[in-house]
Amino acid sequence: MKKKFFLFSVALLPIVALSSEPSVYGTIDSNGISSKSVPSQEVQTLPQNGESVHSSPIRYREPEKSSSTNVSSEDYEGVRSVLQSYETKIAKQDERMRQMEDEIIKLREYVEESRKIQLENQEKVKSVVGELGTLIDSINKSYVPKEKFEQLENELKQNKNAISKQKSSAVDEKKTEKESTPSVTSKQDLSSKDSASLMKEADTFFENKSYTNAEPLYKELLNRNYKPAKVNFNLGEIAYSKKSYASAIEYYKTSISLFDKAAYIPTLLYHTGTSFEKLGKAKEAQGFYKALKANYPTSPEAKKVK
């Protein structure tokens, strides 16, 4: 009996010893959380089958606080900053691309507008060239050969009334010119003058309507081939004033064939048409009137044409 009691007492000793030691896990508060860290300590094992009790140390090491959370937060902030920088750059590139697209659109519109203007100018040039070709063709068709001029002169000579009127008119004009201007210079004096001085003197007579004095000077200049286009035109005007329409037409023809861009071309075309009309050549006259209205519509001569 005593032996059983002794064994029972020995078995209770470790339990009593454990109850008097502080808990390995510390005290637990009402929320179930340990209030202190657990120090390292030894735990006794119960003897079995009469063996002595051996102790082996069981150590609990408090876990170290890891810095992974802080590192992760810093890395996240860095990545987010880089992403924001890239987003800003991409936004700027997108804006630049939109601006370039707008510039390309404007450039295309400008090129297209320039192309249209160029096409329009080409059409206008073609139209003007066509009109000039038509004018030249009409002038060429309206030219009368020299033989025909002579025939017209002969027809005029047969008309006694016309001849008498021309003679009386020429006589009156000569008398007027003799009274208002000096006599014509002799041929010897003409040959001794240079062409520029002779032209100036002839133009002075012409502007003063002293055609009798101007005519021999212009003919001398014509022999010298000095400014033949202008000289032929002025001789045509002198013949026109004398109502020598056939001679006027011949001079006009030579003048325009030499230079058709002169300022007096509208007058030339109008007087040529009038000369043909006076000679009874209405069809030829209309050709010159049409050329005048088509190429010089704003000229005073064109406004005279009905």
SSE arrangement, N to C: HEEHHHHHHHHHHH
Question: CATH topology of the domain at 145-304, what is it called?
Answer: Serine Threonine Protein Phosphatase 5, Tetratricopeptide repeat
- Give Rg in angstroms: 63 Å
Number of strands: 2
Quickly give the structural class.
Answer: mainly alpha
Uncertain parts: 23-47, 49-55, 179-184
Overall geometry = elongated
Question: Main sheet, how many strands, which sense, barrel?
Answer: 2 strands, antiparallel
CATH superfamily of the domain at 145-304: Tetratricopeptide repeat domain
Mean pLDDT: 75
**What is the topology, as strand order, of the major beta sheet?**
1-2
Tell me the name of the CATH class of the domain at 145-304: Mainly Alpha
| Quaternary structure | single chain
**Number of DSSP helical runs:** 12
Cα separation of the termini: 167 Å
CATH architecture term of the domain at 145-304: Alpha Horseshoe
Question: What is the helix fraction of residues, given as a range?
Answer: over 70%
Strand content: under 5%
Keywords: Coiled coil, Signal
Biased composition (Polar residues): 34-55, 160-169, 181-195
Biased composition (Basic and acidic residues): 170-180
Region (Disordered): 34-77, 160-195
